[in-house]
Each structure stands twice: as C-alpha cells, then as structure tokens.
Amino acid sequence: MPIQVRGRVRRDRRSEFSVRRTAFGFVLVAVLLCGAGLTLRTALESAERHPGVAGVTVFALVAGAVALLRRRRNRKAGARAAAAALEAVYEVVDTTLEERPAPEPVQRPEPVDWQGMDPYDFEEAVAALCRRDGCTDAEVVGGAGDLGADVVGTTPDGRRLVVQCKRYTAENKVGSQDLQRFGGTCYAVHEAGTAVLVTTSAFTEPALEYAEQCGIVCVDLDGLTAWSEYGAPPPWHAAEAAQPVER
Asked: 3, 18, 21, 78: least buried by Cβ within 10 Å?
C-alpha cells in the first residue's frame, strides 16, 4: 500500500510589513534631528557668550575649506601644465626628427685590379691614394735614377713621405735585398720622415725583419686593398710608431 507524502507548503519569503521596525526608524530619525538641533542651539548660545571664539572657529573652518579648494585647483592646474609641457616636448622631438636629414649611404670605392696595372699606372694610383687621405702634394717622381723614390709628398702632420712601389706578381715576393736598397736611400738621400714600400704581392720574412729594424712600413696586396677601400688607415699612421734604428 503506497504511503502518501504530504507536500511541503512553500512559505512566502517576502518580508512582511513590520510596525515595530517602522516605529523604530521614526524614533531614530527624531533623535538625530533633536541632536542636530541641540548642537546648533548650543553653538549659537556659545557664540553669544564668546563671540571671539566663535569668530575664530568660523574663520578656521572657512580658511580650511578655501585651502582645500585651492589645493585641488592647484593640483588640477599643475596636471594641465605638465600635460602641456609634455605635449610641447613631443612636438619639438617630432619636428626635429622630421627636419633631420637621413644619413647618406657610405660610398664604397670600386675594387681595384692592382695586379692588372702596369708599373707607371700603379705608381699614379698610389699617389692618388696618398692625396685622397691628406697628402695633397703627393706626386710621382719615379723613373731612371730615382734612387728608390717613386712617390713623394708631405703627410698631414708635416712629415716628408717617400714611397717605393713594387708591382710584382703574386709569385714574386719582395725580398730583403729590395728593402736594403730602399733603406739605403730613403733616409740618407731623400730625407724621409716616413718611408713606405707598397707592393702587389707580399714580403719575405727577412724583408719584414729588415723593414722593422729600419722603420720602413711594408704594405702588401691585402694591406693595399684595405687601405684603398677604407678598411685600414693610411700607412703613415703606422709609421708614427716605427722609428729607424741607429745604424
């Protein structure tokens, strides 16, 4: 036999009108109004008995309110001034960036076929390199009886430059005898302040040792290529540290 279950009666959860709560609310409002009135009355009576104190109190309250308003106004004015200054800085920076010209690309010289030149063209090309880098009076003086000086000029710092040019093939290196012949005339005869030997090949080890002893700057094909393509300083910069040894 099935058991019948009595369904639960759902109560209305809505709050019902409460006379007690309403009366309590009116009483609280009345107390607050009475308190405010009593406070105002006491203040008025105190002002009548002590007008100076009341005046000072009112003045202090008004001054505090004015200071608070002024502080807020100054803070807003400072924020507006800072924003305006920042905007001006942005405008100056933008204008400067717009007016600044774009950097010009570096013009690299075309590679030179040094070994493909004849000896005279090689001497002229070396003299042109010297003039390009500051030896404005560099000129070719080589020829019969040049005693080892193919290019002469004056370095930017005033030293006399004497250059010997050896247009050799890659298999024919500059030897110590070539350096000895040049070393015997570059200082004593041509009064070089800077002596340089430039070649389209390379140097033997004995030649480099002799050049170091005499203070002669040796420039091989790789060094010449780097010099002409702005990859290395002019050889007279290296000669600043190279001084001939007393012989």
From this structure: 3
Tokens 């001006």: give the residue.
Answer: 88
**CATH classification of 114-238, choosing from 3.30.930.10, 3.30.450.20, 3.40.1350.10, 2.60.260.20?**
3.40.1350.10
Domain positions in the chain are: 20-99, 114-238
**Residue indicated by tokens 């002469």:** 152
The amino acid sitting at 42 is: T
Q: Is 193 helix (H, G, I), strand (E, B) or coil?
A: coil
For residue 141, give the 3-state DSSP assignment: coil
pLDDT in tens, 106-138: 556 677 889 899 999 999 999 999 999 999 999
Helices (H) and strands (E) in the chain, counts: 7, 5
Question: How big is the CA angle at 190 (ends 188 and 195), to the nearest 5 degrees?
Answer: 90
Structure tokens at 46: 């105190």
Other Cβ atoms closer than 10 A to 5: 6
